[in-house]
Structure prediction request, 446 residues.
Amino acid sequence: MTQAFDAAAQQTLLESRVADALDQARQAGADACEVGASVDQGVEISVRLGDVESVELSRDQGFAVTVYLGQRKGSASSSDASEESIRAAVEKAMAIARHTGEDPASGLADAELMARELPDLEVHHPWNLSTEEAIELALACESAGRDVEGIENSEGASFSSGEGVRVYGNSHGFLGSQRGSRHSLSCVLIARDARGMQRDYDYTSERDPARLASPETVGRRAAERTLRRLGAGRPRTGRLPVLFAPEVAGGLIGHFLNAIAGGALYRDASFLCDSLGEPLFPEWFTLVERPREVGGMASSAFDNDGVYTRDNVFVDRGKVASYMLSAYSARRLGMTTTGNAGGARNIRLEAPLTAHDDLLARMGTGVLVTELMGQGVNGVTGDYSRGAAGFWVENGRIQHPVEEFTIAGNLRDMFASLQGLGDDIDTRGSVHTGSWLIGEMTVAGD
Prediction:
């Protein structure tokens, strides 16, 4: 399908290049240095109405050098990992460091925090698939959706498959590397009725292609999701409970993680500054990180500072239990890194789960949100206002689709009024969650 990608050979080459860059920085007079390198190769295929629209073969490479002269820092990057390019990057990083101001928080993470055990987390599953076979998968997906009665048109189906290697090393003597892969298939369909057109989609994404949903399943689910949106109106305006479907509930977790991220905290740009130990969610709610989960979509044995990753508890029985910190943000806050340079990895909920129909019954009358639009979330105040689409629920039963309305509240109030979590867990990303039932929000429709 593409030029053969020898992951083992690429890993060996990048490890050698990283080691060379570290040695060059030492010889140039750097007090400390860290180097990151990566290479990724893949294919993306788009089809529409039974025809191939595009076949894109990609190969991306990156190489970044950061040097420290005392507490002065200089960084340079390149898309070329040749020896000449690495030498130039080191020289440029050194020149930048000589002209920057001192930052007391700069520098490598402490040597004793470096990852020492680098287990195989089983995140590399290459797929030896020809371009023709990949095209057939995309065509089969779209065809299965278009064959469903009521589907009028298609925005197409897409297939992607890729693998890569990332390497990180620093002058503490740490050198870590990891191979990875990701494969996905999606479909977007269109239906029409007297009120107009509606569109919706479905997708599957996994590291291991053997775990992907079949093309036919993805196409049919996309059709079902599209058809159920026909006849949409607007909900009534009022203070109502809101049930976030799993595909959008993950965004609520994302807003929380952004608010406890070190960068937002030390800039005093988060509504959760100084919130450790504060009750934020119901007592039955616990949120954890499992970065070394075998096969996880974001699994890694080390973070972007080379620090060993470990299970973290961000919310413990409703209370904020930990921030999400890199070495730099931890120093700015006078704290210790949590191994989260580069973000959170594999977020999981530990809480009682409720069947979806029981959540609807508990809600009574309100809206089920399946799509969100706009960027109306203020990370400093926690104010939340988004355009939405979904379904009107009355007496615990879905009545009809709704669209062109907004939901608004404040994240603190929304988290505190969480009434239940669904057992309909979406496992397609690094955040695994089911539906979230929020007790009350402002719904603006008619």
